[in-house]
Amino acid sequence: MANHTHVQNPKVDVQYRRKKNAEEMKHQIVSFTLMIFLTLIAFFAVGYEGFSAWFSVPFILLLAVVQVIFQLYYFMHMSHKGHELPALFLYGGVVVAFVTIWAFLTVVWI
Amino acid sequence: MSTLARKKGVGAVIWDYLTTVDHKKIAILYLIAGGIFFLLGGLEAMIIRIQLAVPNNDFISAGFYNEVLTMHGTTMIFLAAMPLVFAMMNAVVPIQIGARDVAFPFLNALGFWLFFFGGVFLNLSWFLGGAPDAGWTSYASLSLASPTHGIDFYVLGLQISGFGTLIGGINFLVTIINMRAPGMTYMRMPMFTWATFVTSALILFAFPPLTVGLIFMMMDRLFGGNFFDPALGGNTIIWEHLFWIFGHPEVYILVLPAFGIFSEIFATFSRKRLFGYSSMVFATVLIGFLGFMVWAHHMFTVGMGPIANAIFAVATMAIAVPTGIKIFNWLFTMWGGSIRFTTPMMYAVAFIPSFVIGGVTGVMNATAAADYQYHDSYFVVAHFHYVIVGGVVFALLAGAHYWWPKMFGKMLDEKLGKVTFWLFFIGFHLTFFIQHFLGLMGMPRRVFTFLPGQGFETGNMISTIGAFFMAAGTIVLLANVVITTVKGKRVGNDPWEDGRTLEWAVSSPAPEYNFAQTPLVRGLDAYWIEKMEGKKGLTPAEPLGDIHMPNPSILPFVISLGLFVAAFGFLFHNDHAWGTPVGVVGLLITLGAMFFRSIIDDHGFHIHKEEVMEAEKKGAGA
Ligand code: HEM
Ligand SMILES: [Cu+2]
């Protein structure tokens, strides 16, 4: 809505915010580490001779999806309040794009 | 014009419009530019109908017919219907939600100028070697073989105007999400605002596929690419898919605002709340969503196979359900209302049977097996003109009459308005009803002539006569505009006297800042609620204060001009040595203007409280 009124009482807020920020920082570092780790796994999956493409392609796609979710929720703050509409539009776009590609792969064959 | 404005010279007025970022003036720009393109498209339609009036006619040649046909379709969809829809949205939506402007006024102006230069670019093809001639769908198998530069004008022109549309759509999304007045929840938004919201979302998702398709086509035509050339490993069908993934949502981008306009008109002139408001919202959203799942119904005969055809047929037919919900809601809105047959209401009433005919033939087309018979025949031509003219054009004419006083402060003459309506209504059905039968009898679409003795003569003659009726209606409308502008009397806030939504609570035209005080919205049909409680104005949500306004800027014009120049350069870069340098200079103009926009601090200005009070005393109480 148009009128966010920022009720600001610095004395009360500071402590709460500091705690909140620290928590968030922790989440970001954890997810960042995880993302690097996932990337390493992806490289490994592609490089390892023992996996056929039938395994490694879907597997790294799965890892990619996980990374996107980390990115959106931990770095772009989609988990915070007030992000419902961007989330709606993002998922709306994902659904539309997915259905389109799915239709191509299953019934249309170009 | 704003109540603050003094009398100005012609030059100053032109400069004012070149630099404006005010949504009300941008609406007028869209109306004028879209109106001119509408006349141009109409002229092309008349040429088509004259050529087809009698068999074996040689009014124009076959090649020229293809150009006229292509430019008619392209102009009508992209350069007339789209901008006229944007004219209505700009004129009304910010005021309907109680805002002082759109979220990004600068981008709003940029959107307009991109559309404008794209449209001009496309039409310059007439003078520079020939217009595009592969149909408005520009299927790659045809367009890659087209010898002139016509298709290149199509590709680059639509790319530029498409950016404008995309920008406009995003702007309205942000505006409606963020700028609603206090108390205006989603379920209190007027139906036209809802339609604009869903339409903008469709634009956001539908235009990128077109952009991609046009880039591929540009590569193939101008830069040696092979996306669509099967001889070199490309695939010509990909264009058809990309085009229709955009193209079907596009028809809903046009018709949903039309539904919104009619929803406002039905409620106002039935003097009743819109029947089934929440189901209307639901149906609008559902139509928008399903609109993305049906594109391949334009390609039943391409050879996708029975499974694909069956799935897309059923998905298409499903859209008839929410559309039906809407039709019944409009009927029930009129039921028991005290109806006034004003000009906008006459269009609205005429729209229902006309659009239902278009919907029924739509479901017939969607029956994939039967479509093998209808496809590429005049039956399809009849179908889409019933939905586009009977839906979109009727709505734009209705909306123009309905909101004219809000945009210009004067009422269009009702008598002439009704003359326009009857001429247009009769002409429309004369022209297109008979085409259903021509199609069923086997007359193919997109042919420049037909032979005598096949039973097509009478039908085509009737169709051409109908077209002249519509042309006459348009001329009466133009006369009406001129007469009103010269002689019309100034009107007050609520000239129809039954206005329900916020735009009727401010002066006509609205002051530069729309609302002296942001209103408090206390329900659906906010202004009606206040009127019913015997109040004269709206309940304010804030004290009177200074109002912050954005500065005008010439940069949107310059940015668009740069792309226009660049398109010229790259179009000719294979023929002339100056092509590439001109293209680069154009891009530099655009990027330079964008650079200036980024580094110059522009804080806007304030209209002071005293000035606002002064203006309100003179204007708003009228
Ligand atoms: C009631 C819902 C509708 C249905 C079920 C429907 C169905 C169809 C189908 C199946 C076709 C393909 C026919 C063929 O090429 O063989 C078609 C063509 C077309 N429709 Fe619709 N339609 C509907 C509404 C609309 C609306 C609202 C518009 C525009 C405002 C529209 C504009 C068009 C256009 C422009 C074409 C022709 C495209 C071309 O091939 O050049 N339709 N429609
Ligand atoms: Cu369609």
Key features of this structure:
heterodimer; A: 110 residues; mainly alpha; 2 domains; 3 helices; B: 622 residues; Cytochrome C Oxidase, Chain A; disordered N terminus; binds protoporphyrin IX containing FE; binds copper (II) ion
Task: Give the helices and strands, then pairings.
The complex is a heterodimer of chains A (110) and B (622).
Chain A: H1 10-47, H2 53-75, H3 84-108
Chain B: H1 10-19, H2 23-51, H3 62-96, H4 105-124, H5 140-143, H6 150-178, H7 191-222, H8 236-270, H9 277-290, H10 306-318, H11 320-334, H12 343-366, H13 368-374, H14 378-408, H15 414-440, H16 457-487, H17 526-532, E1 547-549, H18 555-571, H19 579-599, E2 605-607, H20 609-618
Antiparallel strand pairs in B: 1-2
Helix pairs in contact in B: 2-3, 2-4, 2-16, 3-4, 3-6, 3-8, 3-14, 4-6, 4-18, 6-7, 6-18, 7-8, 7-9, 8-11, 8-12, 8-14, 9-11, 12-14, 12-15, 14-15, 15-16, 18-19
The complex binds protoporphyrin IX containing FE (HEM) and copper (II) ion.
Protoporphyrin IX containing FE binds next to helix 8, helix 11, helix 12, helix 13 and helix 14 of chain B.
